[in-house]
Amino acid sequence: FFKQKTAYEIYQCDWSSDVCSSDLADILCLLTEHGLGNLVELRIKGGGLFYKEAVSALKRTKAKCIVVSPWSRWQDIPLYIKDMDIGVVPLEKTVYNMAKSPTKIFEYMAMGILVVSSYVGEAMNIIQDGVNGMLCKDLEEFVDKLEGLIKNPQKREEMGKNAYLSIKRSYSLKTIVAQLYNILGKNGLVGFQKSA
User: Fold this and answer.
1) CA-to-CA separations, 141 to 98, 118, 194, in angstroms, rounded
2) Contact partners, residue 150, CB within 8 Å, separation at least 6
C-alpha cells in the first residue's frame, strides 16, 4: 500500500482540482533553484480560475517534469492519484478558499498520500503539521517542506501512513454517522418513540 522511494527517484506531486492559485509555478521554480527540479514531476489535472495562468507560467519555466491533464470523471480520480507521492494544495486566503470543501485533501490522505497545504480554511482543522501532513504560510515554507520530504523518504512514508490513519479514525462514514447521531440525540432530534 505504501511505496518506498530512493533518494534519486522522481517524486510525483499532484494538484487535481480547481487551480485556486498561480503559486504552483512559483513553487516549481523555487524547487528548481534549490536544485530539486529534476527530482519532481508536477501533475496538474483540473481547471478553475487560475488554471490557464498556472499552466502558462509552468510552461515558461521550460521544466520537462510537468504533466497537465484536463478534468476527468470523479470515479477516475483514485486511480489517477494512487501513485502520487505528495498532494500539493497551495491556496490563497480568499473567502472562496476559506469556505471551500477539503475534498481533495481527504482524497489524498485516504490514499495514504501526504498533503502539503496552505494554512487556509479547513486544512488547518484536518492536517496536524508535521504529523499527518504539512501546513505552510508562504511559498518559501512550501519549498522548504517539500525539499525536506524529498530528501527524507522515511518521514514522507510515516506521515502518509498517519494521514491514512487519521482519515480512517476521524472521517470514516461510520465515525461521521456516530457523531451526527450523538449531536442529534443531545438535541432531542433522534430516538425511538413508541407508536400508540
Assistant:
1) 20, 9, 59
2) 11, 36, 39, 40, 156
H or E element that contains 153:
helix 153-171
Phi, psi dihedrals of residue 131, rounded to the nearest 5°: -110, -60
The whole-chain average pLDDT of the chain stands at 78
User: Which of 20, 34, 25, 10 is closest to 118 using CA atoms?
Assistant: 20
Q: Which amino acid is at 109?
A: M
Question: What is the C-alpha to C-alpha distance for residues 42 and 63, in angstroms, rounded to an integer?
Answer: 10
Task: Determine the Cα–Cα distance for residues 183 and 196; give it in Å rounded to an integer.
Answer: 27
∠ at Cα 85 (62, 23), nearest 5°? 45
Note the pLDDT tens digit of each residue in 56-73: 776 776 666 667 677 777
Q: Which three cell numbers stand for residue 95?
A: 473567502
**Strand, coil or helix: what is 72?**
coil
pTM of the model: 0.76
Of 153, 157, 138, 147, the residue nearest 36 (C-alpha): 147
